[in-house]
Amino acid sequence: MNERRFELNVDDETIVGDVLGTANAPGVLFLHGAGQSHRQRQRPLREDLAAQGLGSVAFDFSGHGDSSASTPGSLKKRLHQAGQVRQHVDPQHHIHTVVGTSMSGEIAIRLACSGASGIDHVVLMVGAIYDRAAFALPFGPEFSAAIRRPASWRDAKTLELIRSYRGGLTIIRALDDAVIPHDVADLLMDAAQSVRFRRLIDLPGTDHRLSEKIAQDAGLRRRIATAISADKLENPEEK
Fold it and tell me: pLDDT of 61-98, one tens digit each?
């Protein structure tokens, strides 16, 4: 399978990633979550997409995987790194879909809604959104205090941004998720009034470790791959 590894200097960090599948015009950008996550979590899913002819880009945020960790991360820093990686590997803006997992739900929405992004499909897998006050805070005690305020995500800037987004929106929600409140997906679906389609896929018997389940379950992996690659939907508000 065609794969190209890259290293990119972004400010004080070295960001490492790869292009898998169609190297000249990858169509999907994958953004991993927080904690111990890294770009390889979605490798089996990306391989399925590549087998369908849909190339993808994934990278490790600073402090994760193969990327360096010089200074504390933040949501703002992650958004900047995502934008720089996209410009590096895709200067002609062939990437039309961004997939944000967990913490990167916030990043995926902000990236898609930034200027003339050309991103026509946002896919959120157990995606999070955050209080706007937390966006620029370095990860640490102050950031944790901001996001642990009860229902702080109801004051997310992304709920405003998604109102004017005109691409497609697919939200994949794990019904046993104890990390991301169910209301997050409902709020985003309600706010996305200008999208060309919106689709909520609920997965019973699935918790926040969705990436692990996708890697282990070929049937689920095919279903998610279809959701990512789908452009024209007969039943866009699938449950």
Answer: 999 999 998 999 999 999 999 999 999 998 888 899 99
Q: Which residues contact 85 (CB under 8 A, 6 or more apart)?
A: 8, 10, 15, 17, 29, 57, 59
Length of the chain: 239
Unique residue bearing structure tokens 């991993």: 32
| Residues ≥6 apart with Cβ < 8 Å to 39 | 17, 18, 30, 32, 58, 59, 60, 64, 65
The C-alpha atoms of residue 79 and residue 115 are separated, in whole angstroms, by 14
Q: pLDDT at residue 236 above 80? A: no
Q: Which residues contact 24 (CB under 8 A, 6 or more apart)?
A: none
**Which pTM does this prediction carry?**
0.94
Which class would CATH give 3-229? Answer: alpha beta
Check: CB of residue 120 under 8 Å from CB of residue 99. no
Ranges of each domain in the chain: 3-229
